[in-house]
Amino acid sequence: MQNELNTLSKNNTWDIVKSTNTSTNSNFIKPLKTRWVYKIKESPSNSNTTIEFKARFVAKGFEQLYGLDYIDSFAAVIKQIAWKIVFTIALNNNWPIYKIDMISAFTQGNIDTSLFLLPPEGLEYLNTSITSNSYLKLNKALYGLKQSARIWYSTLVYILVTELGYTSLKSESCIFINKSTNIIICIYVDDLAITGPNKDVIDLFIKDLKRFFNIKELGLISDYLGIEVIRTINT
Predict the structure, then answer these.
(1) Where in 105-153 does DSSP place strands (E)?
(2) Sign of the CA dihedral 203, 205, 208, 213?
(3) pLDDT digits over 71-106, tens only?
(4) How do the domains of the chain map onto residue ranges?
(5) Which residues of 28-38 are buried (b: 16+ CB within 10 A; e: fewer)?
(6) Are 148 and 155 in contact (CB under 8 A)?
(7) Which terminus of the chain, N or C, has less C-beta within 10 A?
(8) How far apart are CA 191 and CA 202, in angstroms?
(9) Which residues contact 17 (CB under 8 A, 6 or more apart)?
């Protein structure tokens, strides 16, 4: 839980305000409720990593009102057949495939509306700046909000296209290519599979991406979207 709060603080996810300061034009703003979600993340059988215990701080997005708290919520994700075709291309060209994970991806995109949250009971013991009459004014999107996935996708696409020179395919908006380096990127929310002619060009891309996002390098891919990936060499 403390690791999650440290990440949220690093991303400047919210400002702490007193409940008396959340009125605009004399209209009281009703804050959304929040909660903790706990998960045990199991590693694939062909991985050497251990089981990971995760705590996620989320908003109760089902309380949001359309037109007031959010408008658009759709975010594209890669089709299964599309990333399998990319993996086949990499295999036929003997290209390596690497995987990276965005650390608290949704909190790396700026929120698009004015939203306040109620901190869950007990949060004041983990963050002494929060009191019983504190609200959290969001600066970034948060897991659980209806628009968070769309905000994250838009943020990532903007960086890939505008800052790093990538282009999305017309037939698949979650596959990006760079013709100068031949790198191909598959995107499914915060899971990125990256392939290219060699490790050096992939490392350079990851280095560039780190200038904009907090990421976790997972090395050569061993699983993607719940499917284990085992690469064999035919002789």
Answers:
(1) 116-117, 134-138
(2) negative
(3) 999 999 999 999 999 999 999 999 999 999 999 999
(4) 2-228
(5) eeebbebeeee
(6) no
(7) C
(8) 15
(9) 116, 134, 135, 136, 137
How far is 10 from 96, CA to CA, in rounded Å? 32
SS3 156: helix
Asked whether 143 and 34 are in contact (CB, 8 A), the reply is no
Contact partners, residue 144, CB within 8 Å, separation at least 6: 34, 58, 59, 60, 61
Mean of the per-residue pLDDT values of the chain: 88
Structure tokens at 47: 């991985």
**Own/partner pairs for 34-43, CB < 8 Å, 24+ apart?**
34/58, 34/59, 34/60, 34/117, 34/118, 34/119, 34/120, 34/136, 34/144, 35/60, 35/120, 36/1, 36/120, 37/143
CB contact at 8 A, 210 and 100: no
Q: What share of the chain is helix, strand, coil (3-state, %, to 5)?
A: 25, 30, 45
216 sits in which H/E element: strand 215-220
Predicted pLDDT of residue 139:
96
The span from the CA of 200 to the CA of 154, in Å, is 27
